[in-house]
Amino acid sequence: MSVLSIVACGMLEDELVHVLSKDRELQQLIVVENRESSGFLRKLRLRNCNPRTAFLDRVPMLLKSRSSPGFIVPARLLSSFPILKKFCRKKKLREEVIVVVNLLSLDLHADLEILKAEVYRNIHEMASFSDRILVFYGICGHALGKLKEDFSDLKCPLFFLKDQNGEIIEDCISLALGGNEAYARAMTRFQGMGTIYLTPMWASSWKKLENKNGNRDFNNYYLKNPLYCLAAKIDIGLVDSPEFHTNVKEFARTFDMKVVNIRGNPKITEQSYLNARDVTTEKQ
């Protein structure tokens, strides 16, 4: 048995629901209970994905209780005994992967120092029971730009959302558009026109965010600034289109913007998840 943990931004819950509900090989999924988990769990269950839940400090106990009494070999045990590893390969025993998801609040983006502190704290805590951790964040204004360097001594390997060039994505917009180059092309396309890019979660969350510390100023100086005239709707095809369309239309009307449509894709999300899930003990 090996444990893949995912520490994720609440703004990326649709992408996370997509890869988890699409994973037909996923046998065990645990979602950390917190104030962000209810909407996430609802979306998973609508897609017939029914995880166990536990508070973060109870996850190690739940993992222990979920261990099969059959012949399941922990990844770290395999690493310590090469002979056992060879035996398992010869017998073609498939290692079971348990996925643990810890979804953090999207409100953390109101203060990048707090965002960094919370992501770092949760990685440290999850590393104690994980074989590897997928960081479901971009660089996020460079708040997490040194994460790989800062955790270089961590025994639990970290994986990241990377584009086709092997670069960690800038943010959730880069992820939705298909990578940092695609993001740069989009900005070039709308050069000279202030543009706000909207994913489904951004479009459904802006009212909540405008009342948080720092976001009211963001609305006054950017969204209500006449230089910002375009609302770019990024359609990745992951959520209910009528609801997304309604939210974008309301946003554009509120801030007097014109809606433009951009086609995104989920390739980076899908590939990054598979890269982290399918790592063998040998590669670690």
Which features would summarize this protein structure in a list?
single chain; 9 strands; globular; alpha/beta; 6-stranded parallel beta sheet; 284 residues
Quick structural summary:
The protein is of the alpha/beta class and 284 residues long.
Q: What does this 3D model show about the protein?
A:
Helix 10 (200-209) packs across helix 12. Helices cover 43% and strands 18% of the residues. With 284 residues, it is an alpha/beta fold. The strands form 2 sheets. A 6-stranded parallel beta sheet has the order 3-2-4-1-5-6, with helices on both faces. A 3-stranded parallel beta sheet has the order 7-8-9. The longest helix has 16 residues, at 112-127. It is globular. It has helices at 13-22, 37-46, 59-66, 75-80, 82-90, 112-127, 147-150, 172-177, 180-189, 200-209, 215-223, 241-254, 267-277, and strands at residues 2-9, 28-32, 52-54, 97-104, 132-136, 158-160, 194-198, 228-235, 258-263. The two termini are 14 Å apart. Strand 2, helix 2 (37-46) and strand 3 (52-54) form a beta-alpha-beta unit. The chain is built from 13 helices and 9 strands. Mean pLDDT is 85; it is low at 68-74 and 87-93.
